[in-house]
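Self-study notes.
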Amino acid sequence: MRLRPRSGARATLGALTALLLAGTVLVSLPATAHAAEDVGTEEAWIPSGSGADAVELDTTLYVPASATADAPAPAVVLAHGFGGSKQSVADDAADLAGRGYVVMTYSARGFGASTGQIGLDDPRYEVADLSTLIDVLAERDDVLRDGDGDPRVGVAGASYGGALSLLGAAYDDRVDAIAPQITWNSLTAALFPSQTGTVEAATPAATPQDPDAGVYKRLWAGLFFGVGSVPTGGLLGQLGGGGEATDEDGEDGAGDGGSGGGAAAAPASVPDLPFDPSTVDPAAVEQALTCGRFRADICAAYQDAAATGTLTPEIAAVLDRSSPAGVLDRITAPTLLVQGTEDSLFGLGQADANARGIAATGTEVKVVWYAGGHDSQASERETAELRDLVAGWFDWHLRDGDDPARGEDPGTGFWFPAPTGLGSGLGSVQGGSQSVVAGAYPGLDDGAAAERTELAVDGPTQPVVTPAGGTPAAITTVPGLGSIASALAGTAVEIPGQFAAFSTEPLAEAVEVVGTPAVDLAVASPTGSATLFAKLYDVGPDGTQTLPGGLVAPLALTGLSADPTAPTEVTVTLPGIVHRFEAGHTMRVVVSSTDQAFALPAESTVYSVALAGADNGGTALAVPTVEGQAQADGGTSRWWWLLAAVVALGLLGALAGWLWGRRRRRVTSVVEPDGEDVPLRFEGVTKAYKDGFVAVRDLSFEVRRGQVLGLLGPNGAGKTTSLRMLMGLIRPTEGRISVFGHAAGPGAPVLSRLGSFVEGTGLMPHLSGRDNLTLYWAATGRPAEDAHMEEAIEVAGLGAAIDRPVRRYSQGMRQRVAIAQAMLGLPDLLVLDEPTNGLDPPQIHAMREVLRSYAATGRTVIVSSHLLSEIEQTCTHVVVMAKGQKIAQGTVEDIVGTGGAVLVGLSDPADADRAAAVLSGLPGVTVEHTDEGLVADLGDRTTRAAALQALVAADVAVDQFTPRRRLEDAFLALVGEN
């Protein structure tokens, strides 16, 4: 199969079209389908989903003549890359069908002629669509089955389709084998990378990721959103008009409406009629123009990321749910992982993480690296070889043992391109002439760890300037064009004054690097944070520099020392590469402050960068090596695209003056000494918007450990805005919010001590409550044993319902799952917004006891609610807000007790009428008989002391004389009934 990602745009449109529409520059190699037999095709529209999420999928089924009811064949579902359609994998489908497989191809929702919106491989939508297609295959007599409704099926795809195959195998246990290619493990780590921290894994390309911060991969993300923002014929049909639907290849995507596999006829939402503007829904058009084919939450996440360049919990939630990282332990289907060595989008570390996660549960995993990826094409020889590897994987794992076509066991070895010293210039292929085969991927299944060679590097402490707005910026890789600068000038473009460099001595013998090197740095920053980019250059004896793969390692550093004489030491993992550093060459570690492909800080400053341990003899560059046996030589392909080179020159000129959006600096402040005793402190916090509206003004309060704080106020008081600032979802305009003494803000590490439930449950309806909780915790990257899952489930009172699908839950049950989710990990600070919505009275009572008990353990709870009676009975302390300002703060007793209402208890109930007459005779006093006793509202003219004296003087025996006012009364008195 072709292992290069296909964008859906014809390669003959040239590199410019590929760059704009898919972020890849590829040429279409001739198909080498094994036409062992005749293959027929069946076109069909297949409905999937329900309600507002229902779609019609445009499919083509390839059926070999040998597949019959008497001799059923295994099936393969082929998923296309982002921006593509079923036409993108047509050649691969014909090849597999020629080998005897029933092959299903389709255009994913939001692509080609299929209807619906893009969900980024969301388990609720795209993964559910895959299960629908498997259902269709299960109904066919010519497809081999393992049981009723269970076809023998494999799934393969590149990039977008590769992630779908991983997620599909995790969520649908009918998938029997998968072959994901050049895809991601974590979309969060891919689009917001920060390769800092110690690597614990023994595999050669293990890459750490800061879970709380990252450097936004702005150019790649922009290209993706650009592809999905262009409405297609299918989308126009959904907006209310007609229009003949075509996919991005310009070919008719409607097919003939065939009914193969029980599919529906062509959907009415894509009629084959002239477009009629009068039928278009204006609201739908506005949504389409703003977000194109993306779902609204994805569109909002992109717009937030593009505007701020900051990883927020909201953005992470969108990306994490489309990431296989959290569900790899579910995959039991044998997995062939294929990754490219020239890929600035999804590097080798993403495949490494997938391999480790899948193999950890004993699932069979084979890892293949090839010379290519999103930035460069593979050679013809390697393309054919990889196609055979994928087909061989399916032959062994999908065919019966007595099937003569089953072939040999492909095993679980490790393939990688033979390292060479060639650069990765435009059109060249590094290591494309040979492959190296090792017995196993090092470090998996308790196998031998990858070997690492330590090489001494040297260099002084150096200042590194980051310019205002990040301009001018270094140029290393242009998405889809690879190391463009290396192709045109022999070296990447580094800006003088913006980088520090550290080098080895000339190598006495060649060193072949296979994986991710690592080095320890010492960094200081005046602001306590830094955005840097680490690279490993190959420097020849004549000074010529080559940047292998054109790859860089972004670093989002926080908590740095501001003193250059006492810098903070950090471990940095460099990009995963396969490269041979020849004898006499030098390895050069470069740490720069800018890179045109990423979001950069707006403010200028100067960092101090040095090697860690320089005062104690220096540090070492640890480089991984893998021993293996080289395969037979093959031809080396070198492709040059004149149009791409012209476009690249234009891009270089344009990128030199690129102005990035402003981005606030992450600032880590000094820890407050009483931080552990004061879990939350607001100090002069103001949030103003560009239109002049001030949502919160000069808000100051603090919450002590063990308190249950109620946040009260009418609509528009600023409660939700305050909670969103606390959680790091938005930034305050002025002031400071500290959590356990640390400054709180987007990506702040201290927010890991906070559990929250704000603005909706966000649960996946087709999963059980337990699965929702498991996925949520897995997305945090923390150990499963730290979740305290059963404790949270018990606290929320979910019972046996925890294992039922969420779509069958009542609103109250959904609310309780969300509260259990907030309690996972037993956070020290729990923030709940309207936690009793949808709960019945017994459940509200139970929730009240839960929150009190939770705070009694020394933890702190903050509750925002409009149910004042619940706040009164649940909370120990209250902050009352109105019009964005705090108007009162104190214990519930303090707030309730400030006012003129008192409860009068009498020794002799018969004195009630006489006491009422005495009190009613005082200025402004009104009296009411209640079940609790006599309640007198003293107003503002009679003091409590005067009232008590009047009763004593009248010889009324008083047993009790206490302030008596409901929280609701106090609230209305404080904020006014209007």
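Second protein, same conventions, sequence then structure:
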Amino acid sequence: MEELQDAIEDAQYVNAIASVEDGPRPVLPWEIPTEEQLASWKQSKNKTGGSPAPFEFEWTLSHPLGFFLFSAYLKEECHDYVLINFMEEVARWKSTQGRFRAEKTSFIASNYLLSPKMAVKVNTASAQTHATSEESTTTAGEGEAAPEGAAEPAEVDVPRFELPPKTEISEHDLCRDPVELSAEERKELSSKNSDPTKNCIAVGGEVLQTILSKLDKLRNTPGYDSLPAYSCHSKNGGDSDGNSSSDEIPSSDSSKERTRLLSLMSNDLPQNLFDCAEVIVAENVREKHWAGFEGSEYYTKLLNFLWIQDKKVVEEDFFVMRVLGRGGFGLVTACKKGTSGKLYAMKVMNKKRIKIKKAEKLTLNEQKCLADVDSPFVVKLSYSFQSKTDVFLILDLMTGGDLSFHLSLKGRFPTKECLYYGARIMLGLQALHDRGYVYRDLKPENCLLGEDGRVKLTDLGLATKVTPTLSGAAGTRGYWAPEMLRRDKNGKRMTYDHMVDWFSFGCCLAEFISGTNPFRSEPALNYGLGKGKKTKEKAIDYATLEMTPQFDSKTFNEDAVDICLRLLDKNAKTRLGANGCKEIMSHPWFHKLKWESIISDRQRPPFIPPKDVNAAAQSEIGTFAEDRTFHETVLDEKDEAVYKNWDFTSAKAFEAEVLEFLIYERETGEPLLPITVNTSCCCTVL
């Protein structure tokens, strides 16, 4: 019966991950706050203050969900899209760099700032109002009917701006950064630089001239005019999968040089290049549409969702599926958020087991680090909550399995995969280092693949802040750096910093290339045993401290040998990475990699894992025995106090979850209702 149940759960899990592309499948309705609840919540938000003020124009558009709903209101209810599209494009431009920024700059300049005029035939009755109608960003309609008995109006050619294509927000993180200007300054800027005769967004004056002068250097670059038009139908300006069509490096030397020059020059453009123009457009939009938005169902929907975001998450909000793995204190299972249908991984850690192993500090460290680090190369924490017996972490569901699993199937990875995985892992480590953390547990088992083949770091249980007194081996033997094992002349363990991660990174690269970790190999074991070490563990440790690995030329080319040896340098001060990941990125082994595509998360993965379980059988994963020690352990008030700050909701993750839901509703053209609707006070959010 147990095997049958496992098989059923496996089938349900595979069906769930295979259905992700078909859209969210919620099983619970969103809760609607009462008027009293909403009023009380708004009052508490207003008390917190801050700038911009809660619920106002600037505040709303600084949230991805607010930006999305305001944009939807303008396009669906007001049929006025050009100005908000410009604001969206500026927000996207700020997140790009290199040739992607050059492409986006070209698109904004040609479609909005230098928008061409075209002749439109209108009757004379409407032509006389052309000067004022040109201020509108939508296509002008026909004039009013002529009075009875009047002469038939003649048709004349009137210049109108050629409008850019209408686009929709399809990303989950697009928002507007508020510009640091007072309301008076914004109004003054707008009044002095608004000019409906200049372009389709009515920006002129000194603001337009300043932007165009700064673009001159870029626009005068040879070949700039032939730069591919930036496709604005997806987040990244490429195909529907978000992969830029310009990722491929041009074949000719001249094209390569033009791309390089455009990348360098576009990176020199100031980050605030379009800020003043965007402020003028935003002021125009605010004056025309903000009052209408506040009275619309779109605004009500925004408030309802943000109210839900601030509610405490509980275990009953999730529906558990298959067990995926086993940690030190509990199991990791796949789960579904009931209201949105979003799939996640749920890491459950039992408070008693944590107490027995005196691991409260490590547990809190993991939660804090996950909440603190926001990177596409590290598994994201969306929620954390607790029950009387357990603490929970809700994480990205990485359905593709870990790299150890795939390495065992393939023997070793092809060069393209080694480069891709190595680059993303390195950037994940740097993201942790930038926040002051050292990972300490890098190994293939802790590198997970998403359904799309993108790899992320996971299991941050041993991650900790770097301090002057940090010492002691942590992680997995054979991936430890030598400084973790060294002791001073008095036998005291020596301190270390983030450089231990680059040694572990060298171990992983060598393992990806050859299939074997150089310090968990037969030569390493024999080296330690040959030096008189009596156990396997001590032999591996001795090899880590003293042995220089030998790399077979059949699998390691000259550059691969060099990067591995430099990462595995016994001296942390001279180890590759001592000056940050940029010196690793510039190593010749990585020379074929397109770093702009990797950093911006646009690079198409070289391997897409099958839509299967990609994990050990549930019977192999096993469960935890509740022995005598477990039953005799009692949790008291002091133990509960440890987790007083455990509850957490990532605003970014919640809004992304809701936006995925709303985008699917927009695409299907109908409300997304739960499979089973409860007859409670809850219903679909209006």
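Instructor comment on the second fold: Residues 401-599 form a domain with the Transferase(Phosphotransferase); domain 1 fold (CATH 1.10.510.10).
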